[in-house]
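Predict structure. Chain length: 393.
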Amino acid sequence: MGRPLLRRPGGGDAGAGRTGRAAAGRRLHVHPLGGSEPAPGRGGRAGTGGRVSRPLRLLLVGFGNVGRRLAEILLDRPSYPGLAGFDATVVAIVTGRHGTVAHGAGVDLDEALRAVTAGRDFSTHPHRASLDAAAAVASLDYDVLVETSPLSVAGRGEPAASWIRAALARGRHVVTANKGPIAWCYRELAALAEAHGCRLRFEATVMDGAPVFSLARRCLRGNTVRRVAGVLNSTSNLVLELIGQGASTEAAVAEAQRLGVAETDPTLDLDGWDAAVKLACLATVLMGGDLPPEAVARTSVRAVSPDRVRAVEAAGRRLKMVAEAFWDGEKVVGRVLPCELTPDEPFAQVRGQGSALRLVTDILGALLIAEEGPDLSSTAYGLLADLLEIAGE
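Prediction complete.
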């Protein structure tokens, strides 16, 4: 296959001047990607909107690997000079497996981490509470909902979207690492945030903590994003790499699981759903298009024969699963497909768990964002960066 990620069918690429989408007025949104932000709220700090306290009061819904890593960073704040001015307190943690803890003055984070790490629930935690996520979001006193529950493709972003909706309706800021609500409900949630003067932030949804949405919001003002393309799923990338080195598909998946890259059930990664949901987020937020994940054409890694992968490698090229979205007439088209790339192309150089994203704009031109070897700290930092912005740091 050629390089569909580099050219728009039937039209030019960056630098096309007043032709194509620029003439049609497809611009970055004024909110939240442009300069308009909600008015200051009770916290009194310019540009924060909504309610902000000191310390920032956090409600964590979800306490998996990423949520726990964020908690560890919050506990270790003195070890990070850049966090010297940041003050945050976790007032509640709601989980599906371990129960809930809540305390107005802040829960015992150390004990919560010890319990979950040991596989225990919160039944012996001094701050245990009988609240599910919906009740906690609706009733507790907090400034920011930090939502890290698992992606639900079958639920089209629910139930997380409902929790986010309820928090915004109360004038609470939201930070999420969950792609689903952004992919399926972004416009509704963004409008709700604006109406209630609060922030909806989601940096950790695509490329872990790499600055994608914040970069667009702050640094791409006045540009139209006409195309996005990227290597966005680390499991697929690693599996194809291992197959190219001689492994069978099954052995490559097993090795990715052993390394902690692939999930126990890797279906969403291998069949392109994870990349499709990320692509929907990018197309909706950055391009202003309507691209639900189910409308993205997907090719599964399992449909790519090992013989093809090795033949591509033997020919001096590399096979990568590339997710891309572009304007085709009046609609945005998205697809996740295997692309044969020459070694000098940026996406061909993405190795292992890395990822890369290319944004094509009408004025700036093409911009490449690359990430090497992301880990839990990378994703947790995406959450933290959003919290720092809300806190006004």
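Summary: The radius of gyration is 21 Å.
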